[in-house]
Write a structure and sequence with these properties.
With about 325 residues, this protein is α/β, with parallel strands linked by helices. The longest helix is centred in the last third of the chain and has 20 residues. It is about 40% helix and about 15% strand. Helix 4 packs across helix 5, helix 9 runs antiparallel to helix 10 and helix 9 runs parallel beside helix 13. Strand 4, helix 5 and strand 5 form a beta-alpha-beta unit. An 8-stranded mixed sheet has the order 3-2-1-4-5-6-10-7, with helices on both faces. Strands 8-9 form a two-stranded antiparallel sheet.
Length: about 325
């Protein structure tokens, strides 16, 4: 049985790894890609999403353009020094020809959920602006989706875009707080586990060796992203495929350790973007910021080697 998924994405090299993994995996039916600003501006991320469906041989999969800025705050800006000026490690890419869906990403998400009630899993791997907008426009959305699995956040690990904040949350903390406060089945796959997962040199070589358009693009795009990690993290070898880890959670949740707690997202100050899990003491205090918030499944660790092996397997031989 396949799982219908919509990937909300800001491509981004690790986004490319995740999207091509999803297309390669027979357990997923990718029913749409929605673009959002984040790693690069919206024009670039949208064109990359369009490229992905073409290179995967799936031009019938709709691509809907989404938000170009956060709900409230000024954006922290793109990171071409991590992903390259084109979001794909400065690899040579074609101009996409597939047409965009006629709906904004937020409306597209709702209409797909309405057409397939209880069947759609949302997989946001960028800032959560599109998902928050969809909730504002359609408060009944939570009752229409099967599950939401987010790549983002840091419950117990330090931030990566700031000392306190993980990048996707820091881009739009207000949107993140809305989404994580909604009463729906939601899992946060954040830095607590994704920081531990790496594709090593042998795995990267195996992925790049496959003679297919998606793998050849990955082979050209990943070295730039890999160099960022190896140049900036002492002793690190390979790259972190953050976004693809969320897909592995959907395939093999038993590889992950989790807790269930309410979350709040820090909106201001030095810790902006930090995802704060409730503790039993503060949860029961008068005026607790977590009061009335639903539990979120938080991935706190897992079998990092098995996760990286699953990503590699999907990108080299399918499931």
């Amino acid at each position: 049985m396949t799982r219908k998924i919509i990937i909300d994405t800001d491509p981004g090299v690790d986004d490319a790894i995740a999207v091509f993994m999803a297309f390669a995996c027979s357990s997923f039916d990718v029913v749409g890609l929605t673009s959002v600003y984040g790693n690069l501006p919206i024009d670039i991320t949208t064109d990359n999403a369009r490229r992905f469906v073409e290179l995967a041989g799936r031009p019938e999969v709709p691509v809907a353009r989404g938000a170009d800025r956060p709900l409230v705050v000024d954006d922290i800006g793109p990171v071409p020094f991590i992903h390259g000026d084109n979001g794909l490690g400065n690899a040579a890419v074609h101009d996409p020809s597939v047409e965009l869906a006629p709906l904004h990403a937020a409306e597209f998400i709702y209409q797909m959920a309405l057409a397939h009630p209880g069947e759609i899993t949302l997989v946001p791997v960028g800032p959560l602006t599109n998902i928050a907008l969809a909730l504002r426009l359609h408060p009944d959305l939570p009752g229409l989706v099967d599950e939401v699995v987010i790549m983002g956040g840091n419950a117990y690990a330090p931030g990566n875009a700031s000392p306190g904040g993980e990048a996707n949350m820091l881009h739009d903390p207000e949107a993140a707080d809305i989404v994580l406060g909604e009463d729906w089945p939601i899992t946060m796959v954040g830095l607590d586990i994704t920081n531990d997962v790496a594709l090593d040199h042998a795995q990267l070589a195996a992925i790049s060796a496959i003679d297919s358009p998606p793998n050849q693009l990955l082979g050209a795009a990943m070295p730039f992203y890999q160099a960022f990690y190896e140049d900036n993290l002492e002793g690190f070898e390979g790259l972190s495929p953050h976004d693809a880890v969320a897909l592995v959670y959907l395939l093999e949740p038993e590889l992950f350790t989790t807790v269930r707690k309410p979350l709040r997202v820090e909106l201001t100050g030095f810790g902006k973007g930090k995802t704060w899990p409730a503790d039993p003491y503060h949860l029961t205090q008068p005026g607790s910021p977590w009061a009335g918030r639903p539990d979120v499944t938080i991935c706190t660790g897992g079998d990092a080697q098995a996760i990286s092996e699953r990503i590699t397997r999907e990108l080299t031989q399918g499931s």
